[in-house]
Specification:
With 255 residues, the chain is mainly α. It has eleven helices and no strands. It has one domain: MetI-like (MetI-like fold, Orthogonal Bundle), CATH 1.10.3720. Helices cover 76% and strands 0% of the residues. The protein is globular. One of its GO terms (cellular component) is plasma membrane.
């Protein structure tokens, strides 16, 4: 029944899209006069599927996203654990990090070009900045929400600082860390178009941007849908892998 409801919801969205785009609906503030209908998007997707450049686009984007995400995960988790656990780390690191956090990815493009000699490293850096802060802040939150009585109990039983960190702090913060990794993966894909604006070669984000510059509207939607599908799939994989590594964490059921 749940899968049927989800399929019906998706079908309703597609029908509404087809009706609005095919009818060139104009609502004043919102117009569908230049929006391609799903039928045109399906044709463009079929053409891309049979294009020899699809593999190069996917390979380039996957490399950039997962490289930036991996570095962001390592840096975000290490800094988040330190900031959440020790006040000295928080006092030293949080002010500059909080100042950098609101800067959008597109604003980093000129500086990334200046800092890195290769465009590839610049694009990886953009995806890194997009993934870093969700991972970092969720890790900090996970450490700070641990019940202090658990740490006090472990200390009273003779646990040292390192043992408490590994057996109490890290497992207690793990659910929030996994949530941050899942969100960070999504934001890394979110920044992909911004990152690949630097390039001029391959990538799904570049394909989407190039389609816009030549006003190929159906291909724009195809690129958006591919990024959305890849982002959703990789976020789900990260979340499921995290839950598999946390057998002690049982997610509450939904009504």
């Amino acid at each position: 029944m749940r899968w049927g409801l989800r399929a019906a919801s998706l079908a309703a969205c597609l029908l509404a899209w087809q009706w609005a785009a095919a009818g060139r609906i104009n609502l004043g503030l919102l117009t569908f006069q230049n929006v391609p209908p799903p039928t045109e998007v399906a044709q463009a997707a079929w053409a891309l599927l049979h294009s020899p450049k699809l593999a190069e686009h996917l390979q380039a984007s996957l490399w950039r996203v997962f490289s930036g995400f991996t570095v962001a995960a390592l840096v975000g988790i290490v800094l988040g654990l330190g900031i959440g656990r020790w006040k000295r780390w928080e006092d030293v690191l949080m002010p500059p990090l909080e100042m950098l956090r609101p800067i959008p990815a597109v604003a980093w493009i000129p500086l990334a070009i200046l800092m890195f000699p290769s465009s590839e490293m610049s694009m990886i850096f953009i995806t890194f900045t997009g993934a870093l802060f969700p991972i970092l802040l969720n890790t900090v939150h996970g450490v700070e929400q641990i019940d202090p009585r658990l740490i006090a109990s472990a200390r009273s039983l003779g646990g040292g600082s390192w043992a408490i960190f590994l057996e109490v702090v890290l497992p207690g913060a793990a659910p929030s860390i996994v949530t941050g990794l899942s969100i960070g993966m999504g934001t890394a894909w979110f920044c992909l178009v911004t990152a690949e604006m630097i390039s001029g070669q391959f990538g799904i984000g570049y394909y989407t941007w190039a389609s816009y510059t030549i006003q190929n509207y159906a291909d724009i939607v195809v690129g958006m849908l591919v990024i959305g599908a890849l982002g959703m799939g990789s976020s789900v994989l990260v979340k499921r892998a995290g839950h598999a590594l946390m057998p002690w964490h049982q997610q509450e059921g939904k009504a």
